[in-house]
Amino acid sequence: METVTSVREMKARSRAWRKQGLSVGLVPTMGFLHRGHGSLVERSVAENARTAVSVFVNPAQFGPGEDLDAYPRDPGRDAAYLKSLGANVLFMPAPSEMYPPGFATFVEAPELGRRLCGSSRPGHFRGVCTVVLKLLNAASPDRAYFGLKDAQQFFVLRRMARDLDLDASLVPCETVREEDGLAMSSRNSYLTPAERAAAPLLRKALAGAEGYLKGGGRDAARACGIVKETLASEPLFELDYAEAVSTSDLVPLSVIDRETLVAAAVRLGRARLIDNVIFDPSPSGPARKRRGGA
Ligand code: AMP
Q: What is the DSSP letter of 8?
């Protein structure tokens, strides 16, 4: 595996692969990799002749007072893990490479980027859209892989890809969890032992709503109520939001009559944890639709 730090080099690698007729997969990450990231890389390696993985802690998606400086980093361990998974290129640009002096152009996130996490993290999805467009431009992949742990991010990027006629197809990947149900996240490293012990309740709360929907319940307020009641039972949690929204535009629903994202975010000590379930009341189900829909 090669490590590449400049956009020019990344473009040259991708151009050479394409010349040989090789398909290219890209997995954008912020590093401090875990098995959730690993599952995206494995899928890319299985589906493409070449895989590039970017590790870039993107300053543009952090707001003032957020954890940009504290964000965990371990480039040596990340490189060894990616090599073991069969990635071909680790793309690790410095912030000054991605945002050189005078950088001034940003991608305005679509309306759905202002909902859910967007309301407590203004500008976050603008930063995400900007960096992902730049990474797609650098690596020119056939496919780019994203985790549904960050479901809103996937839906925002899918809209950007459609609106801007991007060539790459964006592939959604299921959330990888710890044994107790907690979604894997680099930010879980912020949790104290007591917070870590409380954290799986977020998943349990969402699973409660999913059980209600699978049992035929269609009242969005009730589904959200189940999530909020469960979260309220843990004093370490501070609720940010729990909402049931349509996956097409992230607008809140009152009746669950279409594919629905039930998403929640909580503050837990220094960490802000998010998780979600996607429920589709139609017989074809969410996974099949999403696979074709990116
Ligand atoms: P991050 O490094 O947190 O920016 O994540 C990079 C990519 O990995 C994003 O597409 C995430 O959605 C995805 N990802 C992060 N955690 C998980 C997980 N537990 N399961 C699946 N994908 C994940």
A: H
37 in catalytic set: yes
Give the Å distance between the CA of 185 and the centre of ligand 1: 7
Render pLDDT for 95-104 as a digit per residue (tens, 0 to 9).
Answer: 999 999 999 9
Mutate to test the pocket of ligand 1, among 27, 33, 34, 37 (most ligand atoms within 8 A of CB): 37
Q: Determine if ligand 1 sits within 6 Å of the CB of residue 184.
A: yes
Given 144, 173, 202, which residue is the final one in a domain?
A: 173
> What is the per-residue pLDDT for 292?
40
Which residues are registered as beta bridge partners of 279? 260
Q: CB neighbours of 211 closer than 8 A, spacing ≥ 6? A: none
Q: Is 30 in the pocket of ligand 1 (CB under 6 A)?
A: yes
Tokens of 256: 């669950």
Ligand 1, atom nearest to 31 Cα: 2
Decide: 37 in ligand 1 pocket, CB within 6 A.
yes
- pLDDT of 288 reads 45
Catalytic residue among 13, 37, 126, 272: 37
Nearest CA to ligand 1 atom 10: 146
Q: Are 10 and 139 in contact (CB under 8 A)?
A: yes
* Whether residue 191 is found in the same domain as residue 153: no
Q: Are residues 151 and 235 in the same domain?
A: no
75 and 148 housed in the same domain = yes
Range of the domain at 208: 186-279
pTM for the predicted model, two decimal places: 0.96
Structure tokens at 184: 């894997």
DSSP letter (8 states) at residue 183: B
Q: Is residue 137 part of a domain?
A: yes
The pLDDT value recorded for residue 285 is: 60
Q: Give the pLDDT confidence score for residue 286 in this predicted structure.
A: 52
State which of 128, 150, 173 marks the end of a domain.
Answer: 173
Query: Is 31 found in the same domain as 133?
Result: yes
pLDDT beneath 70: ranges in the chain: 285-294
